[in-house]
Amino acid sequence: MSESGERPKPDVDEAGPIPRRELWAPRISVVIALALAIAYAFMGAGVHEFCLDDAWIHLSYAKSLRLGDGLSYNPGDYPGGWETGFSSPLWVALLAAWPTDPDPVVPVKLLGALLHAATAGLASMIALELASARASIERPIPVMSTALLAGILCATSPTLLQGASSGMEVPLTTCLVLACLRACLREQWLLAGVTGFAAELARPEVLGCLVGFVAVAGLVELSRRPRTWAGVRASLRWTTPALGAALGLGAWVLYCQLVSGWAWPNTAYVKIGGAQTGGLGEGLAYLSAQVLPWQPWFAGVGGLALIAAALWTDLSGKGVLEPRTHAPAQPTTRRWQLLALVVAYVVGMVGTAVSRPLNPDVLFFEARYFAIFAAIPPIVIALGLTRTHRVLSLVLVLPIALLTGLQIPAAQTLQRAQERGIVLLHGDPARHASATLPDDAVIAVEGAGSMRYRTPRTMTIVDALGLNDAEIAHAESDSAKACVLVRRQPEYLVMPEQIAAALAKVFELRVITEFVDPAYAQVAEPHEVRVLLLEVVAVRPRWAERCANQ
User: Fold this and answer.
1) What stretch of H or E contains 246?
2) How far is CA 526 from CA 418, 419, 428, in A?
3) DSSP strand E in 347-402: where?
4) C-beta of residue 12 within 8 angstroms of C-beta of residue 133
5) Strands 507-520 and 460-463
6) Is residue 282 within 8 Å of 483, Cβ to Cβ?
7) CA 130 – CA 14 distance, rounded (Å)
8) 3-class DSSP state for residue 225?
9) Least buried of 55, 319, 359, 397, by fewest C-beta within 10 Å?
10) Cα(239)–Cα(68) distance, rounded to whole angstroms?
11) Which value, to the nearest 10 degrees, does the dihedral of the CA atoms of residues 68, 70, 71, 73 take?
12) 40, 164 in Cβ contact below 8 A?
């Protein structure tokens, strides 16, 4: 180390240039991940649909942007009617640029498959560089197979495969998180800052993950350098990705403030309820019920042992647990990169768990918030495999492989059921409304995605929950929300029967038709759900008077 406090090289380059043949590992990982994602998205019995109606909300804003109506939900309200009904501005911008006509389902799922492939390639490349830096003549490591294992574990992750075909921002965010972490490990600070900024605009939970990573990296680097201004300044470079993410968050908050007068998008106030969260207990309960059981490395236990082996070897500096040559394993320097990756994962998961209320009966609709960090553990697990006895490593990996083989078809079957539900409860009502209702109809809805995207743009869609209507989202009470809805003067309602029953106290309604999903699969216990298309005959006199006085 020089007196100026500058390190000559980042750790990932200590082993010198990576042999060209070993670079095949990331390439093979990309091919495997792309093939799996396409097969997962399109093979098997089912319908061509997304598993969440929220995907159609992002597509609706992207459509408005592409057609020159700005980031508006109802395009006729432009330019004064911009809304903040989406949680991933970068995903909206990408969808606006991506060719999606005439039917966006196939091209958006293909985009997700490409991003999933890029994520697997990045995971493999990070493992390749970390393994190369740890390999030596005295302490050889099967670098190519280690990198390939990381890529395959990422490519076959049931969580990431579901995210890639969901139509949501999961694969984009996951890819950007790994790109940012790789730039950090290579000390490419401009790229780290840019990808941190972009990742935060893809999903706000990224900030906690990057803060966890740079906290470990910055403290270790600071302890290694002389106590000089140059040393402190060099250590502060590790804050670049977190600063980039903070700037991304600031830009998003500024946009929301300018558009709606509130610091967060409508979704935060409707789904999260402002500052109210379920706390650590509820978050951990959801993790244990709906997130971690779908991680084969966790459910099979072997992954935890491999992560522990990787961390023990790096932090103790004692080499591999089994010598790969007849010579004894040689001591190594203590390394921090794997610890930083694990801390980033834990902070990201726990931070997400405590930042919102979570219902343990809700499946992917809420599990997707955690999916963006699922590509980090495979990297550490692959490095841990090189630290264990050959027989033990086989014992630890076998349950992961078996669970992966069982969970992928189970996840695909569940997702097909969720997609059928979106067709029955969202797509079919939207198509029916488009075909039978007047082109200038005002329709109040509970599912605001398909209805907005699939109906004529001359129709006005009122989001009765407030996800795409700031005034409803910030109304002080249910009665105030009802009065905002009254002022919107809806002519028709498309609502689940329980919400329709509540609104029947406000409006005189006539049932036109109903749509039924006999086994609603968004929750742990499927049950029948009905959505009604109703004509608004009139506002009930008591509510007309009540709302007129507000």
Assistant:
1) helix 240-260
2) 10, 14, 20
3) none
4) yes
5) unpaired
6) no
7) 10
8) coil
9) 359
10) 38
11) -70
12) yes
431 CB-near residues (< 8 Å, 6+ apart) = 454
Q: Which amino acid is at 482?
A: A
- In a 13 Å sphere around the CA of 20, the CA atoms on its Cβ side amount to 0
Query: Can you tell me the distance from the alpha carbon of 450 to that of 459, in angstroms, rounded to the nearest whole number?
Result: 13
Q: Tell if the pTM clears 0.70, that is, is over it.
A: yes
Report H helices in 137-228. 143-155, 158-164, 170-185, 189-202, 206-224
* pLDDT digits (tens), the chain, 550 positions: 444 444 444 545 444 566 677 889 999 999 999 999 999 999 877 778 999 999 999 999 999 999 999 999 998 765 567 899 999 999 999 999 999 988 999 999 999 999 999 999 999 999 999 998 887 644 667 888 999 999 999 999 999 999 999 999 999 999 999 999 999 999 999 999 999 999 999 999 999 999 999 999 888 877 776 666 666 677 788 899 999 999 999 999 999 999 999 999 998 898 776 445 667 888 899 999 999 999 999 998 889 999 999 999 888 876 544 433 434 444 446 789 999 999 999 999 999 999 888 999 999 999 999 999 999 999 999 999 887 878 888 888 999 999 999 999 999 999 999 999 999 999 999 999 999 999 999 999 999 999 999 999 999 999 999 999 999 999 999 999 999 999 999 999 999 999 999 999 999 999 999 999 999 999 999 999 999 999 999 999 999 999 988 7
- Retrieve residue 124's tokens: 């493999």
CA distance 457 to 437: 13
Burial of 102 (0-12, 13-18, 19+ CB in 10 A): exposed
Domain chopping of the chain, boundaries: 11-415, 416-548
- DSSP three-state, residue 461: strand
Tokens found for residue 376:
């980090």
Q: 431: burial class by Cβ within 10 Å (0-12, 13-18, 19+)?
A: middle
d(Cα 394, Cα 377) in Å, to the nearest integer?
A: 18
Q: How far apart are the first and last CA of the chain?
A: 70
Helix (H) or strand (E) holding 423: none
Largest CA distance in the chain: 90
Residue 370 token pair: 């955690």
Contact present, 361 and 143 (Cβ < 8 Å): no
Is beta strand 442-445 parallel, antiparallel or unpaired with respect to 460-463? Answer: parallel
Burial level of 342, CB count in 10 A (0-12/13-18/19+)?
A: buried
CA separation, residue 327 to residues 133, 141, 322, 330, 359 (Å): 20, 14, 11, 8, 54
H-run or E-run covering 245: helix 240-260
CB of 306 closer than 8 Å to CB of 386: no
Q: What is the DSSP letter of 119?
A: H
